[in-house]
Amino acid sequence: MSADSDQDHDAATPRRGRPRALTPDERRDLILDALQAVFDRSGMAGTTMSAVATEAGMSKRTLYAVFDDRAALLEAFTERHMSRAVHRLDPEEQALPLASRLRLLMAPSEATRALNLPFAILRTIIAEASERPDMARRIFARGMPALRAAVAVELDRANARGEAHIEDTEAAAALLADMARPSPLDRLVDPAKPMDFEAIEARFDFGLRVFLRGIGAAED
């Protein structure tokens, strides 16, 4: 493959003529999938822009046209991971009781099982925060705040409907996110520790029940 055979794998069914060019979103996903593949094979130390470009079947020039640097690449991966981990409610789901809405919004999903790279990114942030505080701020802004903001929207909706009476929905959303999601400390300290998905689900159920009781809302 030449340096600029940047019809980028194309992921399209082979056909006669020139391959279909990828849309910006398709190219972005191709690169982020390549990042995951390189990390799975080589760890964070081997996850270079060059390796990701090769995995994606494109030149480094094309990769840098999409992401300015490695920090931007990690930031984009974090944003995509969080968007997949948080279920966005449709109008029909928004009509459900608060407990059901929060379960749909926050319940552990398949994205929760794929945490090795997100935790490696978190370690990178911690290690480089003193030299690259801008990177740390940007990546964190794409992570947990997105979940907290989505929860706060539902708590505001609960207040409007009389399902709850919460003085500070942003603070309550942050509290619920911390209660219902596992602490990253264990995995940061011991990357080889196996993930106990049943324990993650049990913590979520318990944390949500405690929170709902605390705000005086129906559990289910």
From TrEMBL:
Taxonomy, superkingdom: Bacteria
Cross-referenced PANTHER family: HTH-TYPE TRANSCRIPTIONAL REGULATOR BETI, HTH-TYPE TRANSCRIPTIONAL REGULATOR RUTR
InterPro entries in the cross-refs: Homeodomain-like_sf (IPR009057), HTH-type_TetR-like_transc_reg (IPR050109), HTH_TetR (IPR001647), Tet_transcr_reg_TetR-rel_C_sf (IPR036271), TetR_C_Proteobacteria (IPR039536)
Organism per entry: Roseivivax marinus
Pfam families, per the entry: TetR_C_7 (PF14246), TetR_N (PF00440)
Domain HTH tetR-type: start-end pairs: 25-85
Region of interest (Disordered), residue spans: 1-26
Entry's Gene Ontology molecular function annotations: DNA-binding transcription factor activity; transcription cis-regulatory region binding
Name of protein: Transcriptional regulator
Keywords: DNA-binding, Transcription, Transcription regulation
Compositionally biased residues, Basic and acidic residues: 1-13
UniProt DNA-binding region: 48-67
